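Entry 14. Ran structure prediction on the chain below.
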Amino acid sequence: MKIHRSFEYLGEVRNPVVTIGTFDGVHVGHKTILNRLKKLAEEIDGETVLITFHPHPRKVLYPETAGKDLKLISTQREKINLLRQTGLDHLVIIEFTLEFSKITSYEFVENILVGRLNAKRIVVGFNHHFGHKREGDFAYLYELASHHDFKVEEIPEQDVENETVSSTVIRKALHEGRIQRANAYLDHFYIMTGNLSDGHPRCREIGFPTYTLNIEEDVKLVPPEGVYAVSLLCCHHKYKGMLNIKQFDEGEGVSVEVHLFGHDHELELRDEIATIRFHKRMRDELQIHEDQALHKQLERDKSEIRELIF
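Output, structure tokens:
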């Protein structure tokens, strides 16, 4: 997958098959669109292109309202890695600014989709809108297609367990700690990626050494406090383990500590970039002040998590 930060250096793309969107989480609905892109590209000997935006448009357009507390399923690094796994040919990441938001839907089609890309096929999700004030939609694209050399398709909504999948629905499930439901909507594990550093000294003192995961972006959605069954990917190795999330007072951040099973924590993973996969939320955060009692509780957690198949 080739990554482009503007259209200026995109170069020539063979028979572009294009879609547009934020694609936060790269969930099952997004994958349906991308799979359709690939099929169309095979039919016309073309290449697939996703035009996405950073930061999230809501953060720019509504910084004090809808965008203020918006947390995202994926950081930019995570989204890029997830999209790479889909077999996408070209990812175009456009810096979303107030100036860019004023581009009309007509200008977006004429100057970018046709003028810059010469798109042959355009695929959009259900109820997709684009351009200034979200004035463009599938019907508008269909109308313009008759005047240009491209065809357009709309992909219907995707349902999982009789619920329509969307990034909003997945964020809600994650905020509630419903990891397995979120994973079903995503069609992959919920992940958190970041740099590892030494964990809390108390954990090491009671026989459960940890690494701290340092979250890369403030907008990253962190599930609620509690203990989770996780696996960790780092340095071409996979480890099973348990993870604790603790929220501090408002404005003071969050602690994410992971203990790995069968791993000598003296073998350095410090300063490495790791990806944590969330499998299940095991319990709420408990306030245990006595070391021996905490050790016993962590042993119970470890035993329960080891019995899981993951």
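The first helix runs from residue 28 to 44. Will compare against last week's run tomorrow.
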